[in-house]
Amino acid sequence: MIPPQTSLKRRLALWLIAIVAGLGTLLLIEAYTSARKAADRAMDGQLEAASLTIAESLQWPEGNPTVEMPASALQILATRWQERVFYWLQADNGRIITQNADLPITDAMQAEARLQPVYLDAVYDGQPIRLSGREVDSAGWDTQEPVQLWVGHTRHGRDLLAQELFRKSATRFAAMVLITAALVAIAMRTMLAPLRRLRQTLRDRSADDISPLRLGVPKEMLELVETLNRLFADQRHHRDALLRFIADASHQLKTPLAGLQSTSELALTSREPAIWRQALETVHDSAGRTSRLAGQMLSLTRLQHLGPGHERQPLALDRLMREVATDWADRQDSRDHDLGLVIDMPTPVWVEGERWALHELLNNLIDNACRYTPPGSEITLTLEGDDERVTLSIEDDGPGVDAESLGRLTQPFERGRRQDTRGSGLGLAIAESIAVRHGGQLSVTNRQPRGLQVSLTLTRCRPPEENRT
Hints:
This protein has helices spanning 8-56, 71-77, 107-115, 156-191, 193-204, 219-268, 273-305, 317-329, 355-371, 403-406, 427-437, and strands spanning 58-59, 66-67, 85-91, 96-99, 118-124, 127-136, 147-154, 313-316, 338-343, 350-353, 378-385, 389-396, 441-446, 452-459. A hairpin with a 4-residue loop joins strand 3 and strand 4 (96-99). It is built from eleven helices and 14 strands. Helix 1 (8-56) runs antiparallel to helix 2, helix 7 runs parallel beside helix 11 (427-437) and helix 9 (355-371) runs antiparallel to helix 11 (427-437). It folds into three domains: 8-163, Beta-Lactamase; 219-303, Helix Hairpins, CATH 1.10.287; 310-467, Histidine kinase-like ATPase, C-terminal domain (Heat Shock Protein 90), CATH 3.30.565.10. Strands 4-3-7-6-5 form a five-stranded antiparallel sheet. Strands 9-11-12-14-13 form a five-stranded mixed sheet. By secondary structure, it is α+β, with helices and mostly antiparallel strands.
C-alpha cells in the first residue's frame, strides 16, 4: 500500500496561508506606518493653526513685541486626549517674550525655523513631544523685528490616534482575510472538482473495465488522463494476448488429449495384444509431446511474468554453447542431422545473463532446427562479434520459411504454416522473451539459397575478478 502524503488541498492551503501571512505582515506594517503619518499630519495641522492664531495676536507697540496669548490657540492645542501644551516666543535679539516651559530648542532648530516652518520631535522632562516652529515678521508695524514662535504638545495623543487608525485598518484587513479565505476555499473545491470526478470515475469502474476514459478535464489534467488511457490500452493488449495464448494453449492441449482418448477407445474395443501395444506406444509418444508442450508453456509464462533479471551474472557464453552442443550431439533427436559449432573470436566470451535462461534459449533453437528440417540437414551454431557486442546464431540448410510468415515466427504457436512436424510453436516465442529479458535483439531471416538463420545480439561485459589475468 502506498503511504499517504499530505493532500494537495492541504498543500495549496498551506502555500496560500504562507503567502497571505507574508503579504499581510507587509500590509500591516504599511498600515501602521500610514496611521502614524496620518496622525502626525492631523496633529501638525493643529500646531500650525495654533501658531498662526498666536502670530495674529503679536503686537509691536513702541517697537517691542508683545503678545496676549489667545484662548482660541490654547483650545486648538488642547486635544481630547488632554495633552500638555507648550509655547515659546523669543525676539530676534534673544529676549524671551513669553513661555510656559523651558523647551529644548537648539540654535540649529532656530536656524532651520528662520528658513521655513518646521516640525520636529524632541524630549522634554522625560516625555516625547512634538514642536512646530516658525518665524513671524512685524507686518503692518513700523519695526521689522522678527519673532520666533514655537508651540508644541506631548505625543501621547498622536500615539493613541495612530493606534485607533491602525485598529480600524487591521479590522478591515482581518475581515478581508476571512472573506478571502472563504472565497479561496470555494475556489479550491471548484478547481479540484475534476480530480474528484476522475477519482470517482475510477472507483465506479468494474475490475475488468479497461476502456478509455471519456472524461472532460482541464488542460493541466489532460496528460494524466492520456497516461491512464495508455495504461488501459497496454492492459487491453496484454489481456488480449493472454486470452489468445489461453485459447491457443487449450487448442494445442485439446488435440493430443483427443488423440489419446480416441486411441485408448479403439484399443479397448480390441482383444489383440498387438493392437494394445501399438496403442500404448501411441499414448506414450503423445503423452511425451503433451508434457513437452506443457513445459514450454510454463517456461514462456515464467519468462513473461518474471521481474527484472536480478539473477544476472557474468558467464562465459562460448563455454555454455559448447556444453549445450555436446549434450545435443548425444541425443536421439539430432542424430539424423549434422550439428556443428563455430566460434569465430578469441575465448572466453563473457556476457551478463541468466544461465538457465540462455541454456533454455539454446535448447529451443537447436530443437526447432532439428524438428523443422529434414534428416541429413546441416545445423551450425556460430558465435562471432567484436569487443563490445557478440552475436550468437544458429543456421540450417532446410526449406526455410515463406516471407509472409517470417515476421510471425516469434509469436506463440506459430509454425510458419507447417503442420507436418511435432513442434509446439513455442520455441522461438520463448527465445524472443529471453532475448528481451537480456536486452538483446532476436532476428529471424531466410538464408540464400535456402535455409533459416536465427541470431541473438548481446552486449559483452568484463569478466569476473577471479577470471581476469
